[in-house]
Write a structure and sequence with these properties.
Layout lengths: L2 E7 L6 H4 L9 H15 L7 E12 L8 E12 L2 E9 L5 E13 H6 L1
Antiparallel strand pairs: 1-3, 2-5, 3-4, 4-5
Length: about 120
Amino acid sequence: MKTFTQKLVVDKKHTALELGSGNLDVFATPAMIAMMENTALKAIDDLKSGFSTVGIEINVKHLKASKIGEEVTCIAILTKHEKKLYEFEITVTDSTGDVIGSATHKRVAVEIEKFMKR
């Protein structure tokens, strides 16, 4: 199974207060979701020239808060690939190894030029 891992140090710009999804200076769910999708995107390495992928579904659990300065790690595991469809299991952990979020995510390959004309 193909995997990709990346890390992020939570900054003010990643907080619920800054993104408007809450009123606390903690890692925002929308920021975590963006990190999850980006990690899955970077796990895909078999696209032909002129193609990209778009997210079509994500089911997320945000289990624990993370403060500014906390380093979080996201791991996306490609669990299924059929034709244009890519499916992932994604986990985000904090520096103590606690799971702060998990998701299943689907992406589909699209021809960029055709897709952008729609």
